[in-house]
């Protein structure tokens, strides 16, 4: 309700909330990495990699890393006010209030974000590490999300925020992000691993990325329609998220083949991606990409020019408060030790 009231007040005074639309065409991303047994995180491999890296920097030997294609000429559009989920066929102090707008100790939006993320109860507690017991792993995830939301960021690209969280907490976080995106005109791409059906239903659009190709990028409601067009059908008791992660796999694809009158032949990721471009939703996406963006319609403040959400002076004050808190903690610890010694 608060976000709706905030948006209503913004509309009444005639303010325009800037939006961000991300377009990418023929995007290629490559990386170099060790493969096979050399990719295992062992002490032997660590020492060999360290030695090879040093010798390679001196141009004495060539690198043994293999080139890997991450993205292979992909194109697409990430629209504002729509939450997009991506499927890939694979010591500090909690003080969000210090990240409020410049010149303020806190603001209403910051308090609201802390409330919807369930962080009010631990607003002044150390996050903790291996030596200091702090907040829970679920709260740590929500702290990271909250830090992004209270800053000047208008576009969020979030990877695996559900790791270590139960399904209820994940649903709460995604639902909070959904409200933020829809009401305040945000832009977001979120990657989740096997979300529950309830969480899956919160998303507006789906991106299915496999072997460097975008197999599908369109509204969530049409994803099953496309794969049925390709001859695959999600079983009634099958979770759609699992279906999307398995339908491009050579090992699992056959179980979803629905055209029993025709023999099954494995359909590669490249063939799926090419067919999507000719599908009615894919053609619409291609037409939008072919239309040049009118730069005169761009908002002058849509992209932040600042690295941090507050000034360096406010950041320095926050660091001073942290150091003061830690100093008091150390003093009390040694006082307790001295008392026990007596």
Question: Can you describe this structure in just a few lines?
Answer:
The protein has helices spanning 2-12, 43-57, 108-116, 137-150, 167-183, 197-200, 223-229, 240-246, 269-278, 280-290, 312-341, and strands at 22-33, 66-78, 83-88, 155-159, 187-191, 205-210, 213-219.
Written account of the structure:
The chain is α/β, with parallel strands linked by helices. It has helices at residues 2-12, 43-57, 108-116, 137-150, 167-183, 197-200, 223-229, 240-246, 269-278, 280-290, 312-341, and strands at 22-33, 66-78, 83-88, 155-159, 187-191, 205-210, 213-219. The chain has 11 helices and 7 strands. A hairpin with a 2-residue loop joins strand 6 and strand 7.
Could you give the topology of this structure?
Elements: H1 2-12, E1 22-33, H2 43-57, E2 66-78, E3 83-88, H3 108-116, H4 137-150, E4 155-159, H5 167-183, E5 187-191, H6 197-200, E6 205-210, E7 213-219, H7 223-229, H8 240-246, H9 269-278, H10 280-290, H11 312-341
Parallel strand pairs: 3-5, 3-6, 4-5
Antiparallel strand pairs: 1-2, 6-7
SSE topology string:
HEHEEHHEHEHEEHHHHH
The proportion of residues forming helix, as a percent range, comes to 25-40%
Write out the strand line-up for the largest beta sheet, numbering strands in chain order. Answer: 4-5-3-6-7
Major β-sheet profile: 5 strands, mixed
Count all strands and give the number. Answer: 7
Number of helices: 11
Task: Describe this protein with a few key phrases.
342 residues, alpha/beta, 5-stranded mixed β-sheet, two-stranded antiparallel sheet
């Amino acid at each position: 309700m608060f976000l709706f009231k905030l948006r209503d007040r913004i509309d009444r005074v005639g303010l325009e909330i800037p939006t961000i639309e991300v377009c990418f065409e023929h995007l290629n991303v490559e990386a170099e990495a060790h493969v096979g047994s050399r990719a295992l995180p062992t002490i032997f491999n660590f020492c060999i990699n360290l030695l090879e890296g040093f010798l390679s920097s001196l141009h004495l030997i060539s690198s043994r890393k293999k080139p890997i294609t991450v993205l292979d000429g992909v194109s697409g559009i990430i629209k504002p006010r729509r939450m997009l989920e991506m499927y890939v066929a694979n010591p500090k102090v909690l003080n969000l209030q210090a990240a409020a707008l410049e010149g303020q100790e806190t603001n209403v939006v910051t308090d609201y974000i802390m409330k919807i993320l369930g962080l009010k109860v631990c607003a002044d507690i150390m996050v903790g590490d291996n030596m200091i017991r702090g907040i829970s792993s679920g709260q740590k995830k929500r702290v990271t999300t909250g830090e992004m939301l209270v800053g000047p960021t208008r576009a969020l690209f979030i990877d695996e925020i559900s790791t270590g969280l139960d399904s209820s907490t994940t649903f709460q976080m995604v639902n909070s992000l959904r409200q933020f995106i829809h009401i305040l005109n945000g832009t977001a791409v979120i990657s989740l691993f096997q979300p529950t059906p309830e969480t899956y239903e919160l998303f507006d659009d789906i991106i299915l990325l496999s072997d460097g190709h975008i197999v599908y990028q369109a509204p969530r409601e049409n994803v099953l329609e496309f794969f049925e067009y390709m001859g695959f059908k999600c079983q009634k008791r099958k979770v759609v998220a699992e279906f999307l992660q398995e339908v491009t796999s050579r090992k699992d694809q056959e179980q979803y083949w629905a055209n029993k009158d025709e023999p099954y032949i494995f359909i590669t990721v490249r063939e799926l991606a090419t067919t999507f471009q000719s599908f009615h939703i894919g053609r619409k996406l291609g037409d939008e990409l072919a239309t040049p963006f009118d730069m005169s319609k761009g908002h002058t403040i849509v992209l932040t020019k600042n690295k941090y959400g507050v000034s360096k002076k406010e950041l320095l004050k926050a660091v001073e408060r942290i150091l003061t808190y830690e100093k008091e903690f150390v003093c009390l610890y040694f006082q307790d030790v001295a008392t026990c010694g007596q």
